[in-house]
Write a structure and sequence with these properties.
The structure holds 2 protein chains of 2 kinds. Chain A is an alpha+beta fold. In chain A, the strands form 2 sheets. Chain A has a 4-stranded antiparallel sheet. In chain A, strands 1-6 form a two-stranded parallel sheet. Chain A folds into 2 domains: about 190 residues, Multidrug efflux transporter AcrB transmembrane domain (Multidrug efflux transporter AcrB transmembrane fold, Up-down Bundle), CATH 1.20.1640.10; about 80 residues, Alpha-Beta Plaits. The longest helix of chain A is centred in the C-terminal third of the chain and has 33 residues. In chain A, helix 5 packs parallel to helix 7 and helix 6 runs antiparallel to helix 7. Helix content of chain A is about 65%, strand content about 10%. Chain B is α+β, with helices and mostly antiparallel strands. In chain B, the strands form 4 sheets. Chain B has a 6-stranded mixed sheet. A 4-stranded antiparallel sheet of chain B has the order 3-4-2-14. Chain B has 3 domains: about 190 residues, Multidrug efflux transporter AcrB transmembrane fold (Up-down Bundle), CATH 1.20.1640.10; about 70 residues, Alpha-Beta Plaits (2-Layer Sandwich), CATH 3.30.70.3400; about 160 residues, Gyrase A, domain 2. The two termini of chain B are about 30 Å apart. In chain B, strand 9 and strand 10 form a beta hairpin. Helix content of chain B is about 55%, strand content about 15%. Classes of the chains: A alpha+beta, B alpha+beta. At the A-B interface, strand 5, helix 5, helix 7, helix 8 and helix 9 of A face helix 5, strand 14, helix 10, helix 12 and helix 13 of B. Strand 5 of chain A pairs antiparallel with strand 14 of chain B, so a sheet runs across the interface.
C-alpha cells in the first residue's frame, strides 16, 4: 500500500483562531483591492464593444494604442504574445451595435495602411443586457445557497452545519474574487461559471468532513466536540489532500498550457480549489465547533 | 439470475446504449466541414447529437429586443414575441445557414445563434429589418409643398434624435399627413422627403410572394411582389379610386419610389424599384416573403467569434484538460493500483455516459458547460477516493476482503450522497433561474452529477462484487 499521508494527529481546532486570522487577512486583502482597484468587470457586465484583430505585418502595442488615440477613442488594448493579435475594448453604454467597432476598424485602416488585418472576434453588449445577466446570475446563486442550507440542516439535524458550510463557500468565492481583483484579471461570464464551480467544489469538500463528524458522533457519543472534530479532520485528511491533488493537477495544467481563452478560468479555479480545501479544514469545521460547543 | 448478474447486465446494457447514442455525433463530427455544411443546407442534420456552442465553433450570436412601445396596442406581448420569433426563423431558414437556435429570453428578448456566419452585417440586415411594407398616397396640397421647401432649405434633418418631427415643422404639416424620408440616391445627393397621407390602405401583410426581378434594359434589380386575393382586391379598389395621384411605396418608414397611378391596377402585383444591389434585393425579397415583424427589433447584444479562434481555443483547452486527466489517471493507478484501475474504468464510463446523455438531449456544449463537466468529474473522482480510503481503513482493521467491500461502500455512501445532492440542489436552482452561460454550466453539472454517482458507486461496486466471486484473499489498493 502506497501511503502519501501517514496517520496524522493535528489539533486543528486549537489553531482555529490562527486560521480565522489568515482568512481575515486574505479577505481583507481582497476587499482592499476591490475597494481601491475595484473588480475588472468585463463587457458582459459593463456593456461595450470588443474587437480582436490579427495583423499580417508586425505592429507593436504602442502603435496600436497610438492609432486608437489618433482615432479619438478611449480604449484598453491587450496583446497576445507571439500572435501579433490585439484586443481592443471600449467599455460603457453604447446605444448602437456596430458604431464603435466600425470606428476602431477605421482607425486601424487609417494608421496602418497596407497592413492587412483580420477580425477574429467582435462583441457588443448593450447597456441593459449586462445588468440583466449579472442580476439573474446573482439571484440564482443566492437561491441555491438557501437550498443548500435547508438540505444540510435537514440531513444533519441542525442548521449550524449548513450555515458553516455556506460561510466556507462564500469565503472561497470571495477570496477567489479578491485574487481576480489583485491580479487585475477580467471577470466575464466564464469566470462566473468558475466561481460557481468553486462554490460547488467547496461545499462538496465540506460535506465529506461533516459526514465523518456525524458518523463519529454516533460511534462515540461521549467524545468532546473538539476532539471529535480533530479526529474527523485527521481521518479524512488523506482523502481531502488526494482529491485536491487530482483537481489541482487538472486545473494547473489548464492554467499553464490551456491557452489564452481559458487562462482566467483556470486561474480562478486554481485559487478556488486550494481555498476550498483550506476552508473546509480551517473555517467550516472550526465554525461548527465554535457555534455548537455550548449546545453539547 | 442473481442480483449481480442484473447489475452487470445493466452496466453492459448502458454501455451499448451509450455507443448507440454517441454514434450519430461521432459520425457527424468526423465529416469534413464542407460535408457538414452541405447536409445542413439540406436540413438533414441529425437531431440527437452533441452540439458545440458558438464560443467553441465560431459564429454570431445576436440578442434582439422587441420595441414593445411600437407594438400595435391590441396585440398581446406573448403573441407578438411568438410571431417575431416565427418570422425571424422563416427568414433565417430561407437564407440557408443551417441549424440556428432561436429562442425567447426573458420578457422581450430574442436570442439568435448563427453558426459560422462571417458576414454579420448581412445577417443583421436580414434579421433586424422590420420589413413593414406600406402603400400610401402622396399629399400634394400646398401646405405639403411649403413643408418640403422649408425642409429642403435646412442643413440638418427635420427629425430630432428620437426620430420625432421638429416642432417648427410639425406645426406646418397638413392635417392627417406625415413626413417620410426617401431612400438615399446617388452619393452626395441631398436627402429627399415626401409628405404622405397617414392612412394606410394596403400593407405588406397581404403579400403572397416577393422575388427579385431584373430590368431588361439595364439589368438593375428590383423586387416584384404579388398580393393575395384579398390584398389584390383592396389594391385594385384603392388604385381605381386614386388615378393620377402619386402612390408611395414605403418600406420600414422609407419611401422607395412614388410613381403616379396611371390607371386602376388589377392582377394584384407590383414592383418596388430603387437602387438595390443584387444581394440587397435578394435579402429584401426573403424578408418580404417571411413577413413583417410585429414591431421593430434592436440588436442589444452581438458576439462574433471567428471560426479560427473557436477551433484554436477548443484544441488548446481540450488538450490541456486531457493532459490533466492523464495525470490523474496515472496517479490513481500508481497510488491505488487495482482500486485505481477500477476507479479509472468508472471515470472512462463517466465520460462516455455523459457524452451520450448530452447527445441524446441534443445539448449544447459551451466553455461554461465544460466547467460543469470538470466539477462533476472531480466529484466522481472524489467519490472513488472516499470509497478507496474507506477500504484502506477497513483493511487496516484486518477484516476479510469479502467484508471490507460492502462495509466501505455503506460507510462512504452518506458522504457521497450528501455532497452530490447539495451540489445538485445548487445546480437545479442555477438551471431554473440562471440564463445563458450560467444555464450551460448547470445543465452539464446536473447530468454530470447523476452520471457520476452512478459510475463511481454502482458501477465500481458491481466490478468489485464480480471480482469477489473468484474468492480473492487480498485486495491490492
Amino acid at each position: 500500500m502506497m501511503v502519501l499521508i501517514k496517520k496524522t494527529n493535528i489539533d486543528f481546532i486549537k489553531k482555529r483562531f490562527m486560521f480565522f486570522g489568515i482568512s481575515a487577512i486574505m479577505i481583507a486583502a481582497g476587499a482592499a483591492s476591490m475597494a481601491v482597484k475595484g473588480l475588472n468587470l468585463g463587457l458582459d457586465f459593463t456593456g461595450g464593444t470588443l474587437l480582436q484583430v490579427q495583423f499580417d505585418q508586425k505592429v507593436t502595442t504602442a502603435q496600436v494604442r497610438e492609432s486608437m488615440t489618433r482615432a479619438g477613442l478611449e480604449t484598453s488594448v491587450q496583446s497576445f504574445t507571439g500572435r501579433n493579435a490585439y484586443q481592443i475594448k471600449v467599455k460603457g453604454s453604447q446605444e448602437r451595435v456596430n458604431e464603435m467597432a466600425d470606428k476602431i476598424m477605421a482607425g486601424f485602416s487609417a494608421s496602418f495602411p497596407g497592413n492587412k488585418f483580420t477580425e477574429e472576434k467582435r462583441d457588443y453588449v448593450g447597456p441593459v443586457v449586462g445588468r440583466d445577466l449579472a442580476k439573474k446570475a446573482l439571484f440564482a446563486f443566492i437561491l441555491s445557497l438557501f437550498g443548500i442550507i435547508v438540505y444540510v440542516a435537514f440531513r444533519f439535524a441542525n442548521p449550524v452545519w449548513g450555515a458553516a458550510g455556506v460561510i466556507a463557500l462564500l469565503h472561497d468565492v470571495f477570496v477567489a474574487a479578491g485574487a481576480l481583483s489583485i491580479t487585475n484579471r477580467e471577470i466575464d461570464l466564464v469566470i462566473v461559471a468558475a466561481l460557481l464551480t468553486i462554490a460547488g467544489y467547496s461545499i462538496n469538500d465540506t460535506i465529506v468532513i461533516f459526514d465523518r463528524m456525524r458518523e463519529n458522533m454516533r460511534m462515540f457519543p461521549k467524545m468532546q466536540l473538539g476532539q471529535l472534530a480533530n479526529t474527523s479532520i485527521n481521518e479524512t485528511l488523506s482523502r481531502t489532500l488526494i482529491t485536491n491533488f487530482t483537481v489541482l493537477a487538472v486545473v494547473a495544467v489548464m492554467f499553464f498550457y490551456g491557452g489564452e481563452v481559458i487562462n482566467n478560468f483556470a486561474f480562478t479555479m486554481l485559487v478556488g480549489s486550494i481555498c476550498g480545501t483550506y476552508s473546509t479544514i480551517a473555517i467550516a469545521t472550526p465554525l461548527v465547533y465554535q457555534w455548537a460547543k455550548k449546545g453539547r | 439470475m442473481t442480483k449481480l448478474h442484473w447489475k452487470i447486465g445493466t452496466v453492459l446494457g448502458l454501455l451499448i446504449l451509450s455507443f448507440w447514442l454517441l454514434y450519430p455525433s461521432v459520425e457527424w463530427y468526423s465529416k469534413t466541414n464542407d460535408d457538414r455544411a452541405k447536409t445542413e443546407a439540406m436540413r438533414m442534420r441529425p437531431k440527437r447529437i452533441l452540439n458545440l456552442g458558438l464560443d467553441l465553433r465560431g459564429g454570431t450570436h445576436l440578442l434582439l429586443e422587441l420595441d414593445v412601445a411600437k407594438l400595435e396596442k391590441k396585440e398581446k406581448l406573448n403573441d407578438a414575441m411568438a410571431r417575431a420569433i416565427e418570422i425571424i426563423r422563416n427568414r433565417v431558414d430561407q437564407y440557408g445557414v443551417g441549424e440556428t437556435p432561436i429562442s425567447r429570453q426573458g420578457e422581450r428578448w430574442i436570442s439568435v445563434d448563427l453558426p459560422g456566419i462571417s458576414n454579420t452585417e448581412e445577417a443583421e440586415n436580414l434579421i433586424g429589418k422590420t420589413a413593414l411594407l406600406e402603400f400610401r398616397l402622396v399629399n400634394t396640397a400646398n401646405e405639403a409643398q411649403a413643408v418640403l421647401s422649408k425642409v429642403d432649405g435646412m442643413d440638418e434633418p427635420p427629425f430630432d434624435k428620437k426620430g420625432a418631427l421638429l416642432p417648427e415643422i410639425a406645426k406646418m404639416m397638413p392635417k392627417g399627413a406625415m413626413l417620410c424620408k426617401a431612400a438615399p440616391g446617388p452619393d452626395g445627393e441631398k436627402a429627399r422627403y415626401y409628405v404622405l397621407e397617414a392612412v394606410v390602405p394596403v400593407t405588406g401583410a397581404y403579400l403572397e410572394s416577393a422575388r427579385v426581378e431584373t430590368d431588361q434594359q439595364f439589368g438593375t434589380p428590383s423586387i416584384g411582389f404579388t398580393f393575395n386575393k384579398e390584398g389584390g382586391k383592396l389594391f385594385e379598389e384603392f388604385t381605381g379610386a386614386n388615378v393620377n395621384k402619386y402612390l408611395a411605396i414605403v418600406l420600414d418608414g422609407v419611401v422607395h419610389s412614388a410613381p403616379v397611378i396611371k390607371s386602376r391596377i388589377g392582377g394584384g402585383s407590383g414592383v418596388i424599384e430603387g437602387s438595390f444591389t443584387m444581394e440587397e434585393a435578394r435579402n429584401l425579397a426573403i424578408i418580404l416573403r417571411a413577413g413583417a415583424l410585429p414591431a421593430p427589433v434592436n440588436i442589444i447584444e452581438k458576439r462574433v467569434v471567428g471560426p479560427g479562434l473557436g477551433e484554436d481555443s477548443i484544441k488548446k483547452g481540450l488538450s490541456s484538460a486531457a493532459i490533466g486527466f492523464i495525470i490523474v489517471v496515472a496517479f490513481m493507478l500508481v497510488y491505488y493500483r487495482a482500486g485505481g484501475f477500477v476507479a479509472n474504468i468508472a471515470l472512462a464510463l463517466n465520460f462516455l455516459f455523459l457524452a451520450a446523455a448530452m447527445s441524446y438531449f441534443g445539448a449544447t456544449l459551451t466553455l461554461p458547460g465544460i466547467a460543469g463537466v470538470i466539477l462533476s468529474l472531480a466529484m466522481a473522482i472524489d467519490a472513488n477516493v472516499l470509497i478507496l480510503e474507506r477500504m484502506r481503513e477497513e483493511l487496516l482493521l484486518s477484516k476479510p476482503v469479502a467484508m471490507v467491500i460492502p462495509t466501505s461502500y455503506d460507510k462512504a455512501w452518506s458522504a457521497i450522497l450528501d455532497s452530490n445532492v447539495t451540489t445538485w440542489i445548487a445546480a437545479i436552482f442555477l438551471f431554473q433561474f440562471g440564463s445563458g452561460p450560467v444555464k450551460g454550466f448547470a445543465v452539464t453539472l446536473t447530468i454530470g452529477l447523476l452520471v457520476g454517482m452512478f459510475t463511481s458507486v454502482f458501477v465500481t461496486r458491481a466490478i468489485y462484487e464480480f471480482w469477489l466471486t473468484s474468492n480473492p484473499k487480498e485486495l491490492s489498493i
